[in-house]
Task: structure prediction
Amino acid sequence: MLVFDRRSFLTSTALGTVASVCSGGPAAAIGGLDPPSEAAGLYSFTFGDFRIAPVCDGVFHLPMDSIAVNADANERKAYLHSRQMTGDTVQLQATPLLINAGDKLILIDTGVAPGSDWAPKAGRLVKSLQHAGVEPSDIDTIVLSHCHVDHVGGLQAAAAEGFAKAEIIISETEFDLWNSPDAASKVPEWAAEGVPGLQTTFAELGDRIHPVKDGASIAPGVSALATPGHTPGHMSLLINSGSDAMLVTGDAITSVHVAFEHPEWQIIWDHDRDLGAKTRATLLDRAANEKLLVIGYHYPFPGLGHVVKDGTAYRWLPADWVWDG
Ligand SMILES: [Zn+2]
Result:
């Protein structure tokens, strides 16, 4: 297994160095072989001046009837069946992103809290970071795209001691929403139960939290992009180096299964479903026109690719997994 220590992660200039996807299931002995059920859980590549690694937190499942909720019933059924999506649930990856920005290590989103009943196959972020030779205490900056539990859970699980020195960057709108005294009444019912725990985490982190506005610079070449709808203060990121540009969508383009072909189809996880669809359409158009490298938090690992126009809709083109060395 190829494992990076922190030094090699920080200094590598390879075009695409690979560890492997974590699988999590029990190992199967085949013909006497007993391959490990778990591998390193990261993929890394060079992007201009940056070294970037999608880091596997694991997978979880959501009800199938939570996506494409405004689609015509017959069209929806035919669409999902044509993609073999006939079960009661849809699987989502959770993929935080580790960025070596030269003088600091940035982590975008933090996965699910380990041991969560609703996501027993997620919560592996720390293990995956350690496979890269990176401890949570090495992280200088954590950027939260938004405050849903599959993005902040890992931070909540290790806020004080784990990510010991990290500053926390979050959009001002998002922080004000979730930290307000009446936050539970301002978010969807399914999200409200997470409010007390989140506010406790915010209190623990204190002045390590740095709320920012749209367009804020997080590091040279890394800037915030307001993408409201999924949550009011949802924040994507743009990473620029020379002529290269990358869009880190967070959950602004959530479902790889429907968002490209039917960006107008809504998901119940968007706080404002109409605004979510509008933001999605704007981002897809920009990604296609500007040929951005895109990474989606919930896409099949490692979740990198490009967006192309296809008539009035779009298609997702997963990037090749480039082996190095
Ligand atoms: Zn999410």
